[in-house]
Design goal:
Elements: H1 3-6, H2 8-28, E1 38-42, H3 51-55, E2 59-64, H4 67-80, E3 85-88, E4 101-107, H5 116-126, E5 127-137, H6 167-176, H7 181-192, H8 197-205, E6 214-223, H9 227-231, E7 236-237, H10 240-243, E8 255-261
Parallel strand pairs: 1-2, 1-4, 2-3, 4-5
Antiparallel strand pairs: 5-8, 6-7, 6-8
Length: about 260
């Protein structure tokens, strides 16, 4: 496992930095972000993405299944002198969440969801009419699309593309690398719920009903904006030529930004 995955306070600060430098400017091109805006993040973790929004006066709510991460979020926000509401729950089972959010953030989460069609429907339900959803995820076939950076093995956590092996071989490599049954199960589940770019766009086209999520913008990154704080690499968008080629573009897209309007 890479060190930043272990140091949760550092991870919180890094997410907050990327959110302030790149997420807010990206979103500000399409909406006014400021005091009184109601924002929900699904799969918020420790809440790092939400901190810059809270500092701008937004009312921020974060939901995450991991009770430990929610506890950290409350603590980190308190230490930062920021206000936020954090709920430990499965988004499909949450009871204390109202509708009518101006913006919903779903960052590096949807690729972990099994029932993505239901997830989009629920996201739309929590969004006020005319509100926006910011969905970002790594293309499945990119070098670390399998989230293998969470491996405990230092070799496997830095080994690109091996998540694309057939399931039986992938499991064998993980086992040979000394990964625990729990970690192997987690990584195999990510493989099962993988999300190539074309699969997400097909999912959006499959929506039915009077109200659906419409794509306002799609930005594909060759160098993920978050890599600046992680590795010192400046963000770089994928070339338009490669971005037009299905399947091939997945190998070169480290992050997909979609802005959807509901």
């Amino acid at each position: 496992m890479q060190e930043r995955q272990k140091d949760r306070a550092r991870y919180f600060r890094e997410l907050a930095q990327t959110s302030e430098r790149y997420f807010i400017p990206y979103l500000s091109a399409f909406m006014q972000i400021g005091k009184g805006m109601d924002i929900l993040e699904i799969g918020c973790g420790e809440g790092g993405n939400l901190l810059p929004f809270a500092r701008l006066g937004c009312n921020v709510t974060g939901v995450d299944m991991a009770t430990g991460k929610i506890s950290n979020a409350r603590r980190f926000f308190g230490e930062a002198g920021a206000e936020g509401r954090f709920i430990a729950s499965d988004i499909f089972k949450v009871k204390e969440l109202e509708s009518g959010f101006d913006l919903i953030i779903c960052h590096d989460v949807i690729e972990h969801i099994g029932d993505k069609k239901r997830f989009l429907a629920d996201m739309l339900r929590y969004l006020k009419p005319g509100g926006f959803a910011f969905v970002a995820f790594p293309a499945w076939r990119m070098p670390f699309g399998g989230h293998q950076q969470i491996c405990r093995s230092k070799v496997l956590s830095h080994l690109p593309f091996f998540h694309l092996l057939p399931k039986c071989l992938y499991r064998l490599v993980l086992k040979a690398g000394g990964e625990t049954p729990e970690r192997i199960g987690e990584l195999m589940e990510i493989k099962d719920t993988r999300l190539p770019i074309q699969a997400f766009e097909k999912l959006l086209r499959s929506q039915t009903g009077d109200r659906t999520l419409r794509t306002v913008d799609r930005t594909l990154y060759f160098i993920n904006p978050h890599y600046e704080v992680k590795f010192g690499l400046r963000p770089r968008r994928l070339s338009q030529l490669i971005a037009r080629i299905p399947y091939i573009r997945d190998f070169f897209t480290t992050s997909c930004f979609y802005l959807l309007e509901g």
